[in-house]
Structures are given as C-alpha cells and as structure tokens.
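B., you asked whether I could sanity-check this one before it goes into the benchmark set. Here's the sequence:
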Amino acid sequence: MKNDISVLIAGGGPAGIATALSLLNRGIKCMIAEPGMPATHKVGETIPPNAKPMLIRSGIDQLLADPEHLPCYGNSFIWGSDVADETSFIRQTYQQGWHINRIFFEKQLRAHVLSNGVIWLQGQRVTYCRKQEVGWEVILQDGDNTKSVLCDFLVDATGRSCRIARFLGLQRTRMDTLTGISAMIATAESIQPHHTYIEATADGWWYAAPLSDKKLSLVFMTDADLMDQQMRQTDYFQKNAAKTALIGPLLKGDICEENIQTALHPASTSLLTRRFGDSWLAVGDAAHAFDPLSSYGIVSALEGGYYAGHAIADALSDEEDALPAYDGIISQAFQIYLKMHAQQYQLEKRWEDSTFWQRRRQGY
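And here's what the prediction gave me:
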C-alpha cells in the first residue's frame, strides 16, 4: 500500500521550510506538521552578507527586499578591549547583510511554501512515530483529535527539543548553558548606522539590532545559573542595558515603555548524538544548535534544509551514501563553528575572576 505522503516534516520553522523547498525543487511532495500557533514575539536576527548565495539557491532572496527587513552594513563591537571598534561589509563580495523581522520572515516563508504546494498542518504535534517496513507511521494530535499519517521519510525539524529523535531514544549533548533574555524596544528615532551591536560585559554580553518601525531588538546573554532574575523586570533590564558603553547610547531619548516584555531563550551550543537513520534525519537546531554570537542560527537552518532536501531525494532514490554525506556536510560545518567560537571567546581576556569568561577560556 502506498504511503500518504513522501516526506513528513515535523516543525515549521526555517529549517523545516527550507527542507520542504529543497524537496519541491526535486519534485517530491511533502507535508509540514507545525505544533504551535505562529509566534507573536521573536528576537530579531542578523543574516550576514555571505549568506546571499544560499538564499538565491533556495529561491528566497527576494523575500528580504521587503522594507520590514533592514539592510545591515557592518558590526560595531566592544570585545576584548575597552575601545569600541567596527567592521564594515563594504569591501566584501556582498556589501550588506540584513536585520530581519523574524516573525514577518517566517510568515513570508510559510506563504512561500504554501503557494508552492506544500501541505501545512497547523497546530499538529507529533505524539508517536513507528518505523514501518517501508517508511513511518506518525500520529499527529490537535487538541483532543488524533490522526495517523504514513510517510516514506520523516524529518525532525523540531528545534532544540529534537522531539522525533527523542522518540527514537537519542540524546542531546549540551556544551554550555548559555541563555538569552530579550526585549523589543520602540525608540524615538531610527538607530544609525544599521549595524549589529555586540558588547562584552563582566557576566556575559549584549546584542542589539535595529529593526523596522524604529524598534530595537535587545538581548543579554549569560549562563542560566548566572542569570540575575531581576533581569526579567523590564525597567531593571533597560537600566542595565543603559549602563553599557556601546549599546547604552542606542537607548537615549524617549523610549516607549508600554507593552515591553522580556523573554528567555535557550542559546547553548548543543548537538544531537546521531543526526540520521533509516528513512529519517534531523535538520536545523534539532541536529546542531549554535551560540548566537556566531550568526550561524538561521543561516545554518536554511542551509541545512537545502542539503537535507537533496539528501532525502537521493535517499528515496536508493542512494546509500546520501544521508551519511548530508551528515558529513553539517558535521564539518559544526566543527568549523566550534573552532571559530572558541577563538572569538578567547579574545576576551578582561574580567579574570568572572565565572562566565573563565568557562569560555577553558573551552570544550
């Protein structure tokens, strides 16, 4: 008996959508099961200039032309020194990156895959999966209702929870406990220049990125056990941000304090012990999750989805090396990331007594 769908993708974030787009380009029908309702708040993110070729390959580069996404022309930072510095993208092959409105971008991606024929099941959570002789039986739940779907291939795009992999008994290795606390702040004027702002402090580091509508995405990163719980209070959060040398001046002037909410985000470096198996693979944060300092997050999700789709198509055509080759590509990228990640943190030699920085100097 033929299965209901070729590929079922659990998770409708950027990695799952990029996998679906890649499959569509290979003529393979797929279904996305997204357990949650669309989010109303997500931290703004920066996509670096060197991601443009991947965006073009995936056919989604035009989405970033929308004015909801601001151009990013470089990085301003205080890191490893008390002196502010900056890097400009002007001399790179691609001379701008993007500060993306993450909520709007994910809406764009959903509309894009729907217009290209992907079946989208909103509010459907995978509660059970069982390997069949050919493919999988997957149970989806929406409230009190359940349904069974048979598929040839199953994709875990459930993010750091790696829900499918955990059903299969796999574990996740977490290398640190980095956690972000964020807020979206409306400023009186647009932030200029359109840079990404990074500032190291004694107990962690701050990230700020200007977004459309005079908004500023602001995040403080530290380890979960070092987090000052008062940072959940918006006034305390803002006061601490205002004390910083580089990011503090971005908060000058009138700040609209209504409806500001803080949110916690896991941000550790972590990886799944095994990223593929018989007719399944993990993609995006479900496979490897990155420290936001690297700017790898959404780029890795989109790029991983691109390679995952091609690997799945090849595997469905009985190419035995397809899935190991995919794992080799993403694992190599993760190893490169680990090296760059360690080098970046070890540039910061101030605060010798800081637990946060001592942990980073020790490496993995």
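One thing to flag: The longest helix spans residues 322-346. Otherwise nothing jumped out at me.
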